[in-house]
User: Fold these one by one.
Assistant:
Number 1:
Amino acid sequence: MTELPELSGKVAIVTGASRGIGYGVAEALIARGDRVCITGRNEDALKEAVEQLGAERVIGVAGKAHDLDHQAAAVERTMAAFGRVDFLVNNAGTNPVFGPMADVDLNVARKVFETNVISALGFAQRTWHAWQKDNGGAIVNIASVAGLAPSPFIGAYGVSKAAMINLTQQLAHEFAPRVRVNAIAPAVVKTKFAQALYEGREEEAAAAYPLARLGVPSDIGGAAAFLTSGQSDWVTGQTLVVDGGIFLNAGVG
């Protein structure tokens, strides 16, 4: 980013943001003047992302999203560096298993829930107590269209994202009126995380979408920027589907 916008005075934490959707969200928030803390497991990748986004306004805190000490460190370092945490975008996620639910390893299923759901709750609790409870703000949970309908062979992931959508509603109800909580449910976005779903057959995969392309991280970044802006001040507890129209094909035989 060659020219930094005027500071907005707002600060965000974006988890799982060294690449992919999280990076796209961080980029969108920085582009409007927010300062941002990004997290990720790989310290080298995180450092590179901080440099690319602009170290003047971005800090990185490496660690595993479900680790309680990491959650505490991310919030504490953000407060120390910027003095506030207005926005939280829970993007960190995992999907290490592919196959039918009948055969899924229960320990793997626990890992999926620990990373995709429990970590989101942990970060939400910490930002709430550190700043948002008294000062307001917004939380955005990155869910998935897999949480809205059966998702063959990635069922554990889909169930965890369905839980995240319900978590969004629970937190929206409890945190109102000071904090708005919404979710985004993307379809396939071109990231390393989703590569197995389109690699080597992108044109074929994109043909199923009415908008004739797969998503890119900036599509989700724009949605997250909207849901953390004053333009969405009367929106809470909702799940915004960002899917290139793929759900329009539901029921088409």
Number 2:
Amino acid sequence: MTTQTLHENPFSLVLSGGGALGIAHLGVLHDMERNELKPAEIVGTSMGGIIGACLSIGMREAQIYEQIASFVKVSNWIKFSLSGNAIVENDKIAEIFSTIFGNRKMHETDTPLKLIATNLKNGHKRVFDAKDDVCIKDAVLATMAIPGVFEEHTIEGEVYGDGFLCENLGISEASYNHVLAVDVLGEHSFEKALPDNFFKTHNVLEMFERSMRLLIYNQSRLTLAHTDKNVLLLEPETYRYSTYQFHKYEQIRALGLGLL
């Protein structure tokens, strides 16, 4: 599929999760604006959900980038917790999302939006969309809640965590036959050689993150293998960066440029 096909047909934009690696989505959005490509709907998971939600209310890529640049100052959003199930409480993050989205509901977007989260009680996938009487900021807090890192989020009595636990690349939720999918945890998200650092601790940490990337990558491959959609898949080369390196937002954004 080519960009010309996307010009001629309504398409779903699917943005994957990936922590800081998801900032590469902005490079793709930049090129979409340059090519005057506008999705008919947006499907997002985790970081892809945050960026997709911003796009859905009419924000331009430069505006989203500005928010990300502010977001990476850790003191702006980190509030460590000594109790509960996560390292980081959501108070400060919730304030940022309240500033961006206000009290807008999922049906009050310029472009239809779907955000993928995971019900932490039963493990089932939960897709928040226009049918739900839910605020965008709440659905975003749910889709990005990495278990053990960010505080889980409760909506209507159910407890939700990050969508990557069930579907990191939400192609199966696309309503349109043509799909532009951006997977920052795709084939180019891990090095082909195993870590070989002097310190064993570094090797262990790198192997853990590599294992998580491989798990998610294979999850997405399975989804792609069973879809009947016409998918244009973009996989930025994110292997040089870690999922927590938000301070490298300029370099990571550049990874998404020139893929269209």
Number 3:
Amino acid sequence: MKKLILLLLLIMLTTTVSAQKYVGGDISMLTKYEDAGVVYKDKNGTAVQPLPFFKEQGLNIMRVRLFVDPSKDNDKGVCQDLDYVKKLGKRIKDAGFNFMLDFHYSDTWADPAKQWTPDAWKTLSDTQLYDKIYEYTKECLQQLKTAGATPDFIQTGNEISYGMLWGVEGTTANRCYTNSSAANWNRFFQLLKKAGLACREECPQAKIILHSERTPNPNVLTDYFDRMKDNGIDYDIIGLSYYPAYHGNLNTLETALNTLENKHYGKDIMIVETGYCYAWPLAGTTFDYTSTYPYTEEGQRHFTADLVAKLNDHSSVKGLLWWWPEDNGNKSVTDSWWNAALYNHNTGQPYAAFYELKNFLDGSTGMKENLRESIADGSWYTLDGRRQSTRPAQKGVFIHNGRKITIQ
């Protein structure tokens, strides 16, 4: 019996990861849902206040995006001006969360295909843009601090895999591909350096994140972060987007993580955006994962559990944030529902996947509950406690004879 107890303790200790990890979501639309009268509930159907409830469930970080002048865009999801972010950021901080600020440096959505310069900045020369991004970043951070919404993490750009502030919409200039001119890259580096300098001056304790979504392309990722290292870009964290619908299976993510870790950049990694569907496919889906994770509540939960287990195998991964988890049943708030939210639009209750997220902090996903049983009966268990009749045929992480085993 003593040997069994010692074995259990040893396994628990060796599978425990650093407590300095962060899990939560991008809740940039929360204010709009609340203003529309949306009611958030717990799994029993009891109405709750969302931020305290999220905190009670073990989440510890929330992200909010910031646009320069969102009034220029008619998309209902593009509404986060500085005043909006100051108010929501203060609520996030007051509720005890870490606050991640996501600068878009645009009037509209910024992503790898859209990095358009804000209308008010379009006539500026490159040199003037360097000054503008510094002044704008600095002014925003000063106002956030005064409002009681000091960021703990700052993204200097959103999914800036190919640069940012390209110019007027539709231009092909200023993009930074692997074969782009040195001039384009140098322009990008100057923008990043100026934005980063403002962050260091105003929020010296905050961690700066460089965000790319090139998760399926490890060669592009390493080219990108090699350039950042070689050109002295000051940042702390590699931020990645990972959506199976667009990026592929979990092995694709594993390859990206292994590749980045093997480069020894000396940076932590955060998955700053992820999501998986509970019913219908996402618009523009390019990868069908439904043979493993059906578009159901259970399929979404199963994906989330396996994602958490995968990330917990990597000590460099310190953050996991679900994108738009709060989407909840009022279509008037946005142009369309987000089919990878964590709330049931009909009931206002969280889907089961919501409760899986906190296991990223534990580094266990139900492991401790299963260790004794797996040793006692020799069976295989999923990390969330489901006993398997035989050795699992599917890929994933399982518990057998008191050990965590990955089946490839």
Number 4:
Amino acid sequence: MKIVRLAAATLLGGFALTTLSAQALEYSLPSAGSRLIGENQEYVVPNDGRALEAIAAEVQLGLTNVMEANPGVDPYLPKPGSTLVIPHQLILPDAPHEGIVINVAEMRLYYYPKGQKVVEVLPIGIGQLGKDTPENWVTKIQSKRPNPTWTPTAKVHAEYAARGEYLPAVVPAGKDNPMGLFAMYIGNLYAIHGTNANFGIGLRVSHGCVRLRNDDIEYLFKKVPVGTRVQFVNQPVKSTVEPDGKRYLEVHEPLSRTEDEFNSTASAPLPMTPALTRFIAHKDTDSRIVKQVLEQRTGMPVLTNPGNQASDI
């Protein structure tokens, strides 16, 4: 259970994770009218020389998830003894609670097992700039294949050749295959699959497919049946008005449109949908808090009407 391995873990939120499955974070679905799940936690960085990617994998997050919640952290060598916020509290995407929902903006996959009142959440890697993963698309799992082969396109062959690397016409199955050991196909061009790299979950690294850590794709592969609905959404801003009147806003950095994901200092514009405009304009919303949330983009839900509850952002 990954949650009990958090060093000096301190609960920060009020909505608990119910259980952790072997690989996925599993949350009980909230009551009717609610979209807020989970709790944030704290993690004390051990003095073992691990990069942030290894810590992210331990707490079942992507690298970007941890970096958003901890601005300024060194992704290569986080400071031993420092405390990281682990963003395990989430607002569910605005999409049906059915099958798989992939929010490319936050690089998370949500799986709603049929007949169960839970949602399982897994971090993902998505397509590089110019090789984008779909952002608004409803499809289904068309087939599944263990030990997949990979047939690179002519464009991919050219990219590798430009680096002095040459690929075979078909990359055989095995540990060196970029698709990993399991693949679920969702169309002629896309798949949800594993990886042959330890780095890249929570980043734009693939040729357009959805990439998971190997343990995670194996877990999902065994659970998700062929025919399962799959919906892609691009929701960097999520909001919820809870049944008790509390109003939460969760903001992620929108998908980068530049090549330099780590070092770009320019913030991309946020989509101001009619629903978000109404949320911000509501008389109970604290405009000072909203301004900070929109600027800081920590990827964590923040209470925007703290008059309902003692709160400090």
